[in-house]
Design brief:
The chain is of the alpha/beta class. It is built from 17 helices and eleven strands. It catalyses: 5-phospho-alpha-D-ribose 1-diphosphate + nicotinate + ATP + H2O = nicotinate beta-D-ribonucleotide + ADP + phosphate + diphosphate.
């Protein structure tokens, strides 16, 4: 089967899940899947995906895996005890066919028990699709492309402080190719390879697991906080209360950059270690954040700007040079690392659309990334956060 370990997912799923256990154990949510790549017919593979999901829901954490998680400085013992009893509930996920070849994949149930579905389900969709459409994968081409990317970094003396991380689990070509990429980067990139968001490979190869929060966390706060306008502030405060200064990278694009900067005041500027970019122009985003730090009497050179929006190696290198000496930079590269074998990758996502029965939304600085089932709620959210026009 494709997924053989519940650790085969991104670290931020576990860090968010711990917050859910301690702060929102009764929250009910709904996620929906979407393929943004036009003309993809997934109907022939629906039954195969169903079988993979059946197997996923049979998995349990092993003692070795729980010992590893418990050894991470920010994971608490009661959370590990909860995971000892955990499995993904099959009744909470459904897969059906929609017109035009699209699939309707819906996850619905307690947030605490469904939060770990997203990443492995997307990895399943990708691998089932690619293994049926490319029976003789172009691994040689993939290795050449990977070698060329590594050479870009190793041959440039200006990039001695350049660090990339793997963020590619959800859109990988296959688990086997993902693993080969991890091993190659570890062996050949040295200190330039900062680690991986994939907890399974981090454990297996002694890599640093990386990640803090995702969009779903701040989206859920729309339905959990005291007031919609304060939901972003509420999310940051709850996070800080849980981790007490650890895992201090704030996500900036759930309501757009203007709304983020309004809420990310001096207190949060000093409290959080930095912020992550995931939509809009990354150069403009970084310039604005650096100026924001200066206006709040914080030295931006002490703060980390994490770039993770559709990154390629050339773009990451451009960004590193542009911001050199002005801040600390880090780069999370996904599809361009784990699904670059000359084939068109699938742009698949699974986003939270409801929390406690009410709509939730992400309003992105990249319009096509905005996702919400309720147009009236989306319009209201834009009004509340004053985001009628993109900030970047």
């Amino acid at each position: 089967m494709i997924i053989t370990s519940l650790l085969d997912t991104d670290l931020y799923k576990f860090t968010m899940m711990q917050v859910v256990l301690h702060q929102f154990p009764a929250a009910q949510v709904e996620y929906k899947y979407k393929c943004r790549t036009p003309g993809i017919d997934l109907h022939p593979y629906a039954d195969e995906m169903q079988r993979e999901i059946d197997a996923l829901c049979e998995l349990r954490f092993t003692d070795e895996e729980l010992t590893y998680l418990g050894g991470l400085r920010f994971i608490k013992s009661d959370y590990v005890d909860f995971l000892r009893l955990f499995h993904l509930p099959r009744r909470c996920i459904s897969v059906s066919k929609l017109p035009g070849g699209e699939l309707d994949i819906v996850v619905k149930g307690p947030w605490l028990h469904t939060i770990l579905f997203e990443i492995p389900v997307l990895a399943i969709v990708n691998e089932v699709y690619f293994r049926n459409n490319h029976l003789a994968p172009a691994y040689g081409e993939g290795r050449q492309r990977l070698a060329a990317k590594m050479d870009m970094v190793r041959s440039d003396p200006e990039l001695h402080d350049f660090h990339i991380a793997d963020y590619g689990t959800r859109r990988r070509f296959s688990k086997a190719w993902h693993e080969e990429v991890m091993v190659t980067l570890k062996e050949q990139m040295g200190a330039h390879f900062a680690g991986t968001s994939n907890v399974y490979f981090a454990m297996k190869y002694g890599l640093t697991p990386l990640g803090t929060m995702a969009h779903e966390y701040l989206q859920a706060c729309q339905g959990l906080g005291p007031r919609l306008r304060d939901s972003q502030i509420y999310g940051f405060e709850v996070w800080a209360r849980e981790y007490r200064g650890d895992l201090g990278i704030a996500l900036s694009d759930v309501y757009g950059m203007n709304a983020f900067l309004r809420d990310f005041d001096m207190y949060f500027c000093k409290l959080f270690d930095g912020a992550r970019h995931d939509s809009g122009d990354p150069f403009i985003w970084g310039d604005r954040l650096i100026e924001h730090y200066k206006e709040n009497r914080v030295d931006p050179r002490t703060k980390t700007l994490v770039f993770s929006d559709s990154l390629t190696f050339p773009l990451a290198i451009q960004l590193a040079k542009y911001f050199a000496g002005r801040c600390i930079t880090a780069f999370g590269i996904g599809t361009n690392l784990t699904n670059d074998l000359s084939y068109q990758p699938l742009q698949v996502v699974m986003k939270m659309v409801k929390c406690n029965g009410q709509p939730v939304a992400k309003v992105s600085d990249t319009p096509e990334k905005t996702m919400c089932d309720d147009k009236a709620y989306l319009a209201y959210l834009r009004q509340v956060f004053e985001i009628d026009t993109p900030a970047v």
